[in-house]
Amino acid sequence: MKGQALFSAFQGIGDDLIAASEESAVRHHFVGKRKAFRKVLGMAAMVILCVGFVLIGRRFLPLVNMENSGSAAPPLVGESLGSSAVTEGETGNYGQGEVWHVDAQLSLDGNIPLSLHMEAARPHLAVGETVTVDFFTETKDEALVLTFDTVAPEGLTLLSEPTQTVSGQDRLAISFTAELEDGESATVTVTVTVREGDAPLGAFTFSVTRSGNALLLSNDPQFVPSD
Amino acid sequence: MEDEAILDLYFARDEAAITATSEKYGKGLSSLAYTITEDRSDSEECVSDTYLTAWNKIPPTRPSYFYAFLSKITRFLAYGILDKRHAGKRSGVVVELTEELAASIPAPDGTENELGHLLDTFLRTLDTDSRLIFLRRYYWCDPVETIATLTGRSPAGITSLLFRTRKKLRRYLEQEGYTI
Fold it and tell me: Which of residues 118-147 of B touch A (CB under 8 A)?
């Protein structure tokens, strides 16, 4: 029987190999390997989860802000203006894909805090396309109704309603198209009022500049409180 | 007791060495001998003869891997017992293993020592998993199901891996000039 030859041949295998194949050593080897595999699998799952959370967060974070139920406003570094504190966002020209925003932190009569946030994320902003700017409000007074009046200067065509109202924690959007000449600018003013007949709280202003075929939301976007 | 301490007893010609060896490795050696012979009295005889052989070889031999050294003696003795038997009385495990290996090794021609060296070299070329599983099956004569439990793999996976390893062995031996 040929197999018998190999059984004899097994006597020629090194003792080190035999010792490594003892039952306890084999069990230890495979248990260690399974543990290592599970560890790698766990780490891979964690990485995938983290990446997933980051991607989901990037996709939905603006919506979370929009439906803000009390989360903190973006970091504010403001200048005190009597009973109001105003913080302006980053200024300058904003290129493709950048987020442009300005925050305003106000204190209404009766010390009701009000946070206003204006933002535009523009993956593709070109002449002829619709420009949309979002406004978010956040206040503890859910009954508070704010009116936003938009004035579009010559060179811009307002597509959204010129007057919009929001309450409590809500958002609105203004959209427009620009028919500017190359190098020309136009400044948009959005006035915010609490109640009809009251003096406005202040106004957001920002300008739109055409540069070649690109539109830039630019030049010091800000919220100027009323005196 | 550590292997080194047991070996010291052998070197001191202290018969407590046999007792210590039996206590530490008797069960494993009996199991190996019984797997091959499938006879309780034959396996007991094998194990007793293993202790005697070890007693005679140590000293001067001082094995680095004591259990491996003992297991080789036990296997050698167990196969010696099988050789004395009529082929029809060979154990089921040996018949099974022989059939599995028959297509991967050459006919016996008195060159088993050389074959042993080639087998040693071949096993060192394998990845660790394949080598351990091959040795569990063909050196320690473990059933496939036992290896599956030991390694956490499926029996079908073990069978498949063994099949591939035997094919590699056949190719290796043919390259070395053997005719299968």
Answer: 118-120, 123-124, 128-129, 131-132, 135-136, 138-140
